[in-house]
Amino acid sequence: MENKSPNLLMKFLALPLVFLLCFCHVSVASTEKKKTYIVHMAKSQMPASFDDHTHWYDSSLKSVSDSAQMLYTYTNVLHGFSTRMTQEEALSMENRPGVVSVLEEVKYELHTTRTPEFLGLDRTADMFPESDSMSDVVIGVLDTGVWPEVRSFEDTGLGPVPSSWRGECESGTNFNSSFCNRKLIGARYFSKGYEAILGPVDESKESKSPRDDDGHGTHTSTTAGGSSVADASLFGYATGTARGMATRARLAVYKVCWIGGCFSTDILAAIDKAIDDNVNVLSMSLGGGGSDYFRDSVAIGAFAAMEKGILVSCSAGNAGPSSFSLSNVAPWITTVGAGTLDREFPAYVSLGNGMNYSGVSLYKGVSLPTKMLPFVYAGNASNSTTGNLCMTDTLIPEKVSGKIVLCDRGVNARVQKGVVVKAAGGAGMILANTAANGEELVADAHLLPATAVGQTSGDKIKSYLFSDANPTATILFEGTKVGIEPSPVVAAFSSRGPNSITPAVLKPDVIAPGVNILAGWSGAVGPTGLASDNRHVEFNIISGTSMSCPHVSGLAALLKGAHPEWSPAAIRSALMTTAYAVYKNGKPIQDTATGKPSTPFDHGAGHVDPVSAHNPGLIYDLDVNDYVGFLCALNYTAIQISTLTRKNFTCDPTVKYSLTNFNYPSFSVPLQSAVLGRGGSGSGSGSGSIGSTVVKYTRTVTNVGASSTYTVSVNLQSESVKVLVEPDTLSFSELNEKKSYTVTFTASSMPSNSFSYGRLEWTDGKHVVGSPIAISWT
Predict the structure, then answer these.
(1) Cβ-proximal residues to 121 (8 Å cutoff; 6+ apart), any chain
(2) 479: alpha, beta or left, given left = phi > 0 and alpha = psi -120 to 50?
(3) Which of 40, 79, 111, 216 is the catalytic position?
């Protein structure tokens, strides 16, 4: 699989959690290699002989290992600690009275100007006033750190740091507390988990401090809340005013990602501290994957943050367009996919036969000669069976020198292919997509004249290349072009549903700009992230759901500033129910991967519309009790629930918990296929006539607008499903008044892997409160 970004942006670690509780000393002798574990303790069971839980944790650890030391103790995200133990010691700990769980650490991955205008924020300053409440909102960003010298962190016009802030600006290698100001109000770093596995931070390669030597963290934080910077660009591309989504919000960075990855012990420690510091929004452009919520460190940390009223925004992942490829699907996380802007950076391929094909590039350097150059396919100029991919040392210089080289996309980084071509003496590169990437075009700041083309164009260029005895080509660079239609389209790399953990919860929640995004960058690394790239830029253009996530984080901060009383679920609901899934001409948002209309499994509720989200009319709210009921509906055990809630809780056997009553702003209806015969969805269904299934979903909406009466409409693209909404009107006379309704889906049996999509909308003539519908037969 292609490494879509060459630097640390890609590989991260998802670490499980470990818990322990014990009262007797047991020494476990073993020569086994030690691993990192996170130990969850049942704090309520701490013996009376201990007056401090950390002393109890230490005593419990010493009961199984004389040599083990705690890496971190956790207070908010869980009750417990992380440590290094052998597997035998971990198993011994797991069997001690009072231990909740002991889980081995795993890695998480990082998921990787014009967006304010594209989102309409340039025209709506009056809707998001520069108020004190906006300046009191703090966005916490867990990533690779921060490069504080970027102008996006200037604090001109900002008042004193909010009195509610309890964080710090930590000093370390190449970083001191004076780098923080009234914009960048906090900076911390967490490396104990990383160092426990990979050894001390090599300070000749990266700073043991909050400083960002990678660029990813600076890019995401400035996207979320960077100040306005005029005349920003990358080599003259995307010139304009660069600004974050919430320019008046404060930023706090938590460095958890290093050259060797992002480890869950460090991630949990950072979330734990961010809760103490009193952030309002947490932005995490990283993810692991498909483990149960009680084993997923990001989900565990996000649950604790949610309890404190903190909205957690996470990237959906870059594993698209494959189905079931999502990360961060817990319903208390806002999961963000990626779409395009209406801006491109065209670079055309001109062939010797007179044909031209459009591509994209951010190359800025010495131009190609005005004449056509000899043109060669990398696979025919290589000493390797994988030479078509232009991997290191695979090209034969005598066959590529002075020529344009066509390389196929895949496996190694796109920009790295250009370095290989350049090293072999090639004059330029055309990078052709294969079926895995379709027509997705991502611009790169190549180190030689190069452009990327889609699969269709690539196939036509190859046809010419293979049929002409003396093929020639050149590349024409056209700069920046705006007003591209259609836009947005769903990025091919954006991870897709269905939700592999809980099919009855539709994910992703929304999409936001994530392709070719201009934002701040680290001064320690070039725009490509390659060691050979010695160019230094203040702003860079990169792509990924890592870029779409902080857009939503910043928009959430805007909504929190405008509506301080709103819960995280209310803010997410406002973003979801006002998102759009069709263009202004009424046609559905397209999917780059297929060239066809995208589905709710691709775009969730649709593309965010912050202007409408400011005044959504109605919201679907959720609190901690709702999420606990959700866990009960999943038949989680008391221990599994306590891993997330840190409290002893037993589901009430007299209560019928159901996922169909979970008050989410979307509808995912998983059904059994015809192969399995008639049956329900497994989430609270009953059968109707023979060959059909009846499923009832209950929802409750809260009025956050004026007194009004809403009428429902349902648009479903299937004759196999009938939908009944009762009641079909809802009247509100008071602010915060709640009304409930029921949606009954009557579905015919269908073959496995059949899908039907639609939308349910409530409207009072002013507001449109929309919910996507995704029905699947599996």
Answers:
(1) 128, 245, 610, 611
(2) left
(3) 216
Residue of 82, 546, 658, 668 marked active site: 546
The pLDDT value given to residue 682: 40
Any catalytic annotation for residue 136? no
**Is the per-residue pLDDT at 606 higher than 90?**
yes
Residue with structure tokens 């809780």?
A: 649
Give the model confidence (pLDDT) of 237-284 as tens digits: 999 999 999 999 999 999 999 999 999 999 999 999 999 999 999 999
Catalytically annotated residue among 58, 136, 143, 602 = 143
Reduced to 3 states, what is the DSSP secondary structure of residue 382? Answer: strand
Q: Nearest Cα to 257, choosing from 141, 143, 171, 140? A: 143
| CATH code of the domain occupying 617-622+663-777 | 2.60.40.2310
Assigned fold of 35-104:
Alpha-Beta Plaits (3.30.70)
Is residue 626 among the annotated active site residues?
Answer: no
346-479 classified as CATH 3.40.50.2300 = no
The rounded distance, in Å, linking the Cα atoms of 343 and 360 is: 11
11-25, 99-113, 366-380, 556-570: least confident range? 11-25
Q: Does domain 110-336+493-610 have CATH number 3.40.50.200?
A: yes
pLDDT at 119: 58
Strand partners for 715: 759
pLDDT on residue 683:
42
Helices 624-633 and 297-307: crossing angle, nearest 10°? 140
Task: Verify whether residue 216 is a known catalytic residue.
Answer: yes
Distances (CA, A) of 659 to 505, 506, 740: 8, 12, 16
pTM: 0.91
